[in-house]
Each structure stands twice: as structure tokens, then as C-alpha cells.
Design goal:
With 382 residues, this protein is of the alpha/beta class. The protein has twelve helices and 14 strands. It folds into two domains: 107 residues, Aspartate Aminotransferase, domain 1 (Alpha-Beta Complex); 244 residues, Aspartate Aminotransferase, domain 2 (3-Layer(aba) Sandwich), CATH 3.40.640.10. 38% of the residues lie in helices and 15% in strands. β13 and β14 form a beta hairpin. α2 packs across α9.
Length: 382
């Protein structure tokens, strides 16, 4: 059949101008604004996904992620996908059908963990508490003794509530019960004190777009020795091809390196630069900066008569939930901040929908000027 047999239609043919996005100040739950040096790094030329220069970038990303997580885990990589792909990879690799998984649910992303683990055939049990609270060691011990799970899954920095879950001492509890400790660090890596090895995390994952000041699209993940042992001794195949740690390992660490997928190299350039910025600043200074800027926000909110939702002792510096005053339309305030001031903050999710705003001060945006601009705009709008 000749190509001339068909008639080309222009029904969906658009004549568009060049893309022109507004200069938003992203103070929501993520993404955060990328650091200028990170954006500049993305202009580096495209190379092949097995080009020696790109393989070197991958190796540098691995090493810098080990620094950010404070781990010596050899299996430390970045998956091509957003933070939720890191969550999926974590469960896909260490959970087999019938494995009992205990999930601490104190927010939206704990609920997502329940969903993901169930999709891989886990016998999922839930330990639940109020959205805005953390689990005590006693609650976690009671849950472990009641359910005897193979995996304990917790969110270190719950993005929906602004809660920081204490993790110290849980490794010993998990080892008592021959259980893996799997932790979501999406909103904590690079902005909140985090010691993967010292705290005994067996699996941790994160996202590139929050405290690491890079665009979304990559999900760092690290597997410790106990997790790798579980993966190697699976009785069933890993039920996910794209997130398969064995196949990804041949791409990241094989000799020779084996093709797995075409990696988004420009996102890797960006993540490398975001991690390089973190290493230049130093983790201690970076964590202190996030804490100091958050405290400035909390003080300013108090002057406006606004109250954080989470108690100070478990409050995240990277993400603050602010209670919406009675009689105030939460969505209308967010809308005016966006349209009149180019400032994005996030609304509540799940149990906190309409009850809180979520304010992120992450990475490049964890600066005093971000706080000053937001407080002035909030005062005007309210």
C-alpha cells in the first residue's frame, strides 16, 4: 500500500511558542528549587549510557550517596524514577509472597507502603498512630512481638505530616526478631541527621528533588548486607524487571558493565552536582542550616498566630505542617500565594486534608530569604 493512500490530518498539530515557565518559589512538599549549579550541570553533553565518562559519573554518584547516607554499603545506587520508584524497588526486592511485613502508618506515605508491599504478595500488618505523632520504642517492640514480621517498614521523614520518626535502637530490635529494617528517607536525606550504618538500616531509599536540590526523576537506594543476603536467597524471582536489584547491579557494578536501560544521564549530572554541593558544605553544616532556617520559620509563624502541627521534639526541619486557623479556606490561601506571589506551598493529604499547609525548606531553599518572603506573603494573604 502506498503512503500516498493516507491523508495527513492537522487536527492535533499545534503551533506553540517556546516554553516559558513561571519562576516559582517552591516551598511545598517537593519538588524544591534546584540549585543554580545543578541546573548548569544539566547542560553537559549527552553521551551513551555505557560511555566510560558516564560510568564514571555513576560511580561518583554512588560514592557521594554513601557519604550522604553515612553508609559503607557497596550496593548504593540511584534508580531511574521518582522517589516512589525507590519505595517500589525496596519492597520488590526484599519481599516475597507470604512474607509478613509490619508497616508503621502515621501518614500518607506509610499507607503507600502498605499498598506497595501488598502488591508483592506480602502479609501486611499495620501499626497505626495519629497523623502528627511518631512511634515510641515500646509501641514498635509490642508490634514486633505481636506480628513477628520479616520486614519492619517505617517513614523516617513523613512528608504528609512533618514528623521525624526516631530510628535509634531499632536495628537491635529487628535483629532480635530476624527482621529487616526498611526506611523511607525521601524528605530527610541531605537535610536531616541520618546515619544509615550506625542506625542499622537494612534498606533505605530517597528522592533527588528534595533536600538534594536536584530535579525529580532519580531515586537513590541502598541495600545493606542483610538485605542483599535476603535477595540472594529468595525462593521466588524478583517480580519486577525494571527495579530488579540483580539486573541493576550488573549495570552499576558488573565487569563488564551490562546494559539494563537507557539512563537519563542529564538527571544524573544534576544529582552528582547536588551531592557535590552537599559534600562541599559538609553534612554537619548542612543539617545545622536546615534546622536554623526551620526555627526561623517556626518563630515567624508564631508571630502570625499560626501553630505547627507536630510537637517540637519530633518536628522535621525540612517539612513543617502548619495548622489552618478556624474559618480560613486553606486552598484559597495557597492559591493566592501562587498567583500573587509565585510561592508554592502544599495542602494537607489524607487525614490532614484541609487542616494543614505543608511548608518545605529543603536543600537550596533552606535559606533565610525563603522564610522572609513566605512570612511576608502569608501575613498579607491572611
Amino acid at each position: 500500500m502506498s503512503i500516498d493512500t493516507f491523508t495527513i490530518t492537522d487536527n492535533h498539530r499545534l503551533n506553540l511558542p517556546s516554553i516559558d515557565m513561571p519562576p516559582r518559589i517552591l516551598l511545598g512538599a517537593g519538588p524544591s528549587n534546584s540549585a543554580p549549579r545543578v541546573l548548569a550541570a544539566m547542560l553537559a553533553p549527552t553521551v551513551g549510557h555505557l560511555d566510560p565518562t558516564f560510568l564514571q559519573v555513576m560511580g561518583e554518584v554512588s560514592e557521594l550517596l554513601r557519604y550522604a547516607w553515612q553508609t559503607d554499603n557497596e550496593y548504593t545506587i540511584a534508580i531511574s524514577g521518582t522517589g516512589s520508584s525507590g519505595m517500589e524497588a525496596a519492597f520488590a526486592n526484599v519481599v516475597e509472597p507470604g512474607d509478613r511485613v509490619l508497616v508503621g502508618v502515621n501518614g500518607y506515605f506509610g499507607r503507600r507502603m502498605v499498598d506497595m508491599a501488598g502488591r508483592y504478595g506480602a502479609d501486611v500488618r499495620c501499626l497505626e498512630t495519629t497523623w502528627g505523632a511518631a512511634f515510641s520504642p515500646e509501641e514498635l517492640r509490642a508490634g514486633m512481638e505481636a506480628h513477628r514480621p520479616r520486614v519492619l517498614a517505617l517513614v523516617h521523614a513523613e512528608t504528609s505530616t512533618g514528623v521525624r520518626q526516631p530510628l535509634e535502637g531499632l536495628a537491635e530490635l529487628c535483629r532480635e526478631h530476624d527482621c529487616l529494617l526498611l526506611v523511607d528517607t525521601v524528605t530527610s536525606l541531605g537535610g536531616v541527621p541520618l546515619y544509615a550504618d550506625a542506625w542499622g538500616l537494612d534498606v533505605a531509599y530517597s528522592g533527588s528533588q528534595k533536600c538534594l536540590s536536584s530535579p525529580s526523576g532519580l531515586a537513590p537506594i541502598t541495600f545493606g548486607p542483610r538485605a542483599l543476603d535476603k535477595i540472594r536467597n529468595r525462593k521466588t524471582p524478583i517480580a519486577n524487571w525494571y527495579m530488579n536489584s540483580e539486573l541493576l547491579g550488573k549495570y552499576w557494578f558488573g565487569s563488564p558493565r551490562a546494559y539494563h536501560h537507557t539512563a537519563p544521564m542529564h538527571l544524573f549530572y544534576a544529582l552528582r552536582e547536588g551531592l557535590r554541593l552537599a559534600a562541599e558544605e559538609g553534612l554537619a553544616a548542612r543539617w545545622a542550616r536546615h534546622q536554623a532556617v526551620a526555627e526561623r520559620l517556626w518563630a515567624g509563624l508564631g508571630e502570625l498566630g499560626l501553630e505547627p502541627h507536630v510537637p517540637l521534639e519530633i518536628r522535621l526541619p525540612s517539612l513543617t505542617t502548619v495548622r489552618v486557623p478556624a474559618g480560613v479556606d486553606a486552598a484559597a490561601v495557597s492559591r493566592r500565594l501562587l498567583t500573587e506571589y509565585n510561592i508554592e506551598i502544599a495542602g494537607g493529604l489524607g487525614d490532614l486534608a484541609g487542616k494543614v499547609w505543608r511548608v518545605g525548606l529543603m536543600g537550596y531553599n533552606a535559606r533565610p530569604e525563603s522564610v522572609a518572603v513566605l512570612l511576608r506573603a502569608l501575613a498579607d494573604v491572611l
